[in-house]
Amino acid sequence: MQSESGGSSWPGQVTLRRLADGREIRYYDDRVTESRVHAAADTRPLPEPPHAGELRFDVLTGEWVTVAGHRMNRTFLPSAADCPLDPTRDPARPTEVPDGDYDVVVFANRFPSYAPDVVGPADAGHPEVLGPPDRPAVGHCDVIVFSSDHAASIVDLSAARLRTIVEAWAQRTAELSADPAVAEVFVFENHGEEIGVTLSHPHGQVYAYPFLPPRSAQLIERARRYRQATGGNLLRDVLTAELEDGRRVVLRGEHFSAYVPRAARWPVEVHLAPHRDVPDLAALDDAERAELGGLYQELLRRVNRFHPGIEHVPYISGWHQAPTGGDRELGRLHLQLFSLLRAPGKLKYLAGSESGMGAWVNDTTPERIADRLREVGA
Ligand SMILES: [Zn+2]
Question: What predicted TM-score, i.e. pTM, was given to this entire model?
Answer without folding.
Answer: 0.94
